[in-house]
Hints:
There is one protein chain. With about 290 residues, the chain is an alpha/beta fold. The chain has 9 helices and 11 strands. It folds into 2 domains: about 55 residues; about 240 residues, 2-enoyl-CoA Hydratase, Chain A, domain 1 (Alpha-Beta Complex). This is Putative signal peptide peptidase SppA.
Amino acid sequence: xxxxxxxxxxxxxxxxxxxxxxxxxxxxxxxxxxxxxxxxxxxxxxxxxxxxxxxxxxxxxxxxxxxxxxxxxxxxxxxxxxxxxxxxxxxxxxxxxxxxxxxxxxxxxxxxxxxxxxxxxxxxxxxxxxxxxxxxxxxxxxxxxxxxxxxxxxxxxxxxxxxxxxxxxxxxxxxxxxxxxxxxxxxxxxxxxxxxxxxxxxxxxxxxxxxxxxxxxxxxxxxxxxxxxxxxxxxxxxxxxxxxxxxxxxxxxxxxxxxxxxxxxxxxxxxxxxxxxxxxxxxxxxxxxxxxx
Length: 293
């Protein structure tokens, strides 16, 4: 009977231990679920509060380096339109953001890539201010032209409304090196622009026609987005580079100022009151963002 009592006692202790483990395990699960629920509630609650309270931040989106579809590296910074456009979309869908500032420092680049960003700016539901720091020329100026207003530093370089195609004729070099290059083509003009020969007059005219067409398209986009006449833009374009002050005189920009002024202008346009936040957006911008001043 004593043995049975001991066994019963052990069973009671074991049962109590299991009850505690089950209890703690259950509390752990509930605690984990609670934490997840709180996190989800925060993610839902913040946008709701932002929608009720209204926007309280200005988003700054960098447009730096050559405009194109490649990736940045240690030796070169690329302003990829896919990334820039994705950030503009995020800024438009974030209820806490009231306006966008494009921080431009670029010599231009791909006409197609530049026009893609211009199109995205045109469709923005929130005010967009372009700020040109050191350089905002060619395709970068085309991007800036889509903004509601352009601010540039007095010493910045902007403009350069034009198109360029650069080809090299290395035929004499190849001859001196004893290198003979041949090509078999299907199509009369397939080898146009090859560096082992010069252009024929017909090829030169063909390429010039294409460049003139692209140039006219560029001028038309600037005229439309800056509310200027095509004749006027043609008269000041011609690939000329202007300082910020000159660009203001020629109506290519709207105001002179620095980055803080551009951000303040954006905040005022969106109706954000004092004490607003500045969010510098990057490709990894998430729910909490990257805050700066």
